[in-house]
Amino acid sequence: MSKKHNSTDQQKNVKPKSRRRMQIGISFTVIVIALAIIFMPKKNAQDTSTVASTPVFKKQGELTLTNSNDKPIVSIDIEIADDEAKREVGMMGRPVMEERQGMLFILEEEQYASFWMRNCPLSLDMIFINKQGKIVTIHKNTKPFSDDSYSATAMTLFVLEVNAGFTEKYGIKEGDMVSWKRN
Q: pTM of whole model > 0.85?
């Protein structure tokens, strides 16, 4: 009987030690998680990784819009999307653009171009331009984040994207001309 008692006493002693170890382990884990949360880097408006991921306008040229009488209407700074990768990204993820800034897409060949607004937070005016520099189609106030297709009504070699309302403000219309130069 004393052996049985001894065995039961040992089991009673083991259980509290086991529980204590488990409590210590849990406490240690909670402390480690709390410290990780406290010392985890926080993202804020000045965090360089956030700032770096937002596309920033890069002036690469200047563009002038003229009326049918060859009188200048307005000149703007442009960023140029002249290869597949740049054209694919376009204005995606850009939260702002200045009034006299735009992105000029240069297509590989003249075509009936079609653009969309996927991942673009800005409403834009899209200006489709043929190889002679004549505006052939204008789509005003495009819908942000939309997969709707905005297509040219004639062959196009260039597409200029500017802030929505730009064409209305400056009286830009189909038939007006565009000239541009790289920096």
A: no
